[in-house]
Amino acid sequence: MTDREHTGYDAAAGLTAATQAFADAVREAEQLIANPPFPVGPQDLAEGYDYLAGSIRSAVQMAFDHDLEHPVLINPTHQYARQGLDNPDAIYFNAYLTEGASYVVSGVRGTTADLSFQIMDGGYTADGSPTSLAAFDDRELEVADDGTFEWRFGPELGLKKGSTLIIREVYDDWTTEERGQIRIQRLDTAGRPRAAFDPAKVAKRFGVAAKLLTGRIPTWFAFPEWFTYKEPVNTLTAPQSTPGGLTSQFSSIGHYDLAPVDGRERAMIVSVPVCNAAPYQAIQIGSRWYVSTDYEHHQTSLTRAQSQADPDGVLRYVISESNPGVANWLETTGHEQGVMMLRWQRTARALTPDDGPQVEVVWLDELEQHLPYVECNRVTPEEWATRIEARQVGIARRMLS
């Protein structure tokens, strides 16, 4: 008896159709990358295709690693699979949840600056953001002296099929802080063996991967249009609760255009006070693909621990293409236009405009006139190489991919 006669499902034909549908989705996603809603040069296009490769990788991972009966924490966003202006300081973990189920998240708290938890009633789409069903950091948990913790939750949160758990471990100091140990278990299926591979279910997973891929790219084309690009160019907003994010996270968003004028290079100075009410405070820039730029081999982001504060308690960052020879330089890495974001996490109070950034665009060759403590800010080429090496080591010791 053939497989089709036994089950009513033609396994070979079904799986072939599923992989073909996924291949079609890859081609559809490629067309989105090849024809984005902004002009692209050779570097942008190359980065777009790298973004496509990471998106394919992440879509397959999320479709094939997830298991509603026996969920696991998946790391779908990292330096090789970027999305949604991903935070260079964060390790992201996702798990799919379902209605009627009960769960426990447990582990050992690491030494990162922040550890936060969020449950959303779906995923981001080109039509809008999901609703948070729960959002808090580890201050809401009972963490024992040895760092162990446990959080149990279930139907009382209003879970439904498609609900998603997101856990973020966020670093301030890449060189000293350590990852924790975190796991998720579905309690009402504990001890139940996983079923054998089924052709129809595997085919369905290819379909899920295709849907994730073709939905992901339009989503992150749309998201900055809702928020970031509504702001005037070369400005940053006052700190506000992050849209779709955590109650203990504030952010400031903006976009820049630092194209030379009449051949003269420009730079942006972002000045922001050191915020003692937030143990995590950081800035990053990103590309028009709304993803992080190379934060491992270039200084495209800085945490407070990585930044140099001036004697007046202000962090002054310089965003430019050419190296101005100062410690808090953020490299645009060939991107004359891009996006910017500042984050404050684990906040002890609501932030106000006084906690936020001030922005000034100046001629690069006049930059020093606008930095009141420039003599304290200078770094030599050898010191700069040491900073980049520290970033490379920091990413290698903590990143998952």
What does this structure look like?
The protein is of the alpha+beta class and 401 residues long. It folds into two domains: 3-226, no CATH class; 232-398, Jelly Rolls (Sandwich), CATH 2.60.120.1600. Helix content is 26%, strand content 25%. The chain is built from six helices and 17 strands. The chain has helices spanning 3-7, 11-34, 42-65, 199-226, 374-377, 381-398, and strands spanning 90-96, 103-108, 114-120, 132-137, 148-153, 164-170, 181-186, 235-236, 240-241, 249-257, 266-273, 280-286, 301-303, 314-320, 329-331, 337-345, 358-363. Strands 8, 9, 10, 12, 13 and 16 form a six-stranded antiparallel β-sheet that branches. A four-stranded antiparallel β-sheet has the order 1-6-3-4, with no helix packed on it. A hairpin with a 7-residue loop joins strand 9 (240-241) and strand 10. Helix 2 runs antiparallel to helix 3, helix 2 (11-34) packs parallel to helix 4 (199-226) and helix 3 packs across helix 4 (199-226). 35% of the residues are buried.
Number of domains: 2
Q: Kindly report the oligomeric state of this protein.
A: single chain
**Structural Rg:** 23 Å
What percentage of amino acids are in beta strands?
Answer: 25-35%
Q: Kindly report the average pLDDT value.
A: 95
Main sheet summary:
6 strands, antiparallel
Total number of β-strand segments? 17
H/E series, N to C?
HHHEEEEEEEHEEEEEEEEEEHH
Low-confidence stretches: none
Specify the structural class: alpha+beta
Overall geometry comes to globular
Number of helices in the DSSP assignment = 6
Kindly report how far apart the N and C termini lie. Answer: 44 Å
Helix content: 25-40%
